[in-house]
Predict the structure.
Amino acid sequence: MNSSSHNGQTKTPDLPTLPSPTPEEQAHQGEVTQRLREEIAASGGAISFTRFMELALYAPGLGYYAAGKQKFGAHGDFITAPELGPLFARCLARPSRSLLSELGGGDILEAGAGSGALAADLLLELESLGQLPERYFILELSADLRARQTETIRRKAPHLFGRVHWLAGLPREFRGLVLANELLDAMPVTRFRVTESGIQESYVGWENQGFVWRDKPADEPTRARVEALGLPAGYLSEVNFLAEAWVRSLAGILNQGALLLIDYGFPRAEYYHPQRAQGTLMCHYRHRAHDDPLRFVGLQDITAHVDFTAIAEAGTGAGLALLGYTSQAAFLLGSGLGEILAASDPGDARAHLALTQQVKKLTLPHEMGELYKVMALGRGLRDTLPGFTLQDRCGRL
């Protein structure tokens, strides 16, 4: 997940400016730290950063996404597009309607539904458009987030709650639309460093009462991937093998339909740009962004930008078609944003101002409009999804 305030910049505020955790947060951080230290000790003194990130975010009952801390919105650590208001969901409803109409029905599966705001607003807009999905599945591993999603949907769309079903894993087969908004960025990544003697993978150990970085020779898949990039010695970055595997898993269950991925990131040539030689890891704590994932374990989000070329290769290599790739701004404009704005009542100053503020956040280049990208992968579809008609950047991948 990501804060729209940091815009994906790798520049970090001075760490002393970060807020101090409350006593309750410090106690929770202590529990997560102990869990990580036990894992490190059991592994002979170091664990891969992939495993560190997995535990820090998802350890049952302890990890950032598995515990009860509020994460989304003004009182959390970051704001996602659905939290700004219903405009994002209203735009997504247009391509959703198009796909469901072409299929003559079908389901929607949202992977990692956050607070439930997108699910509620999307269902309400699809109802107004006359194209509700047969079922709306939410793939969510966190019991805490499931409870928040339940409350949000019951409050905002109580009459549609019966269409919503929660899953703990992917279904055996699926027909319809899979939505993943700011999901891939929070999947644990492999962190590597290029050295004169070869490719090193980042591990995490414990020393002098704190977590420390350790380097070990990379395994064969990591070494082969990084060597093919031709990066200079000293270059530090990430590969998201888990996100690629997840896309391949979806390809295995998708009978007909599309996977719509919305996240911040770049094509490979931009991802591994010389100016991005310190990688893309970013952490979010109370709307402050910094790049040290070894701090505030269990209290902060840890993210990495998405290499959309790798995601496209994973999907097409597993038999899916690349249906489109563009910026979030172009996608939303192609999905009816202008029409929605034009239909609003300027006389209702408060509502119109709220709508225009959402438009700015979602589409301006220095906000979410350019850094955030939208990609669609699918099977068995004839029509181009609304959203990619205005501008398609598949050639940049």
The chain has one domain: 24-379. The two ends are 23 Å apart (CA to CA). Residues 1-16 have pLDDT under 50 and may be disordered. The longest strand covers residues 254-266.
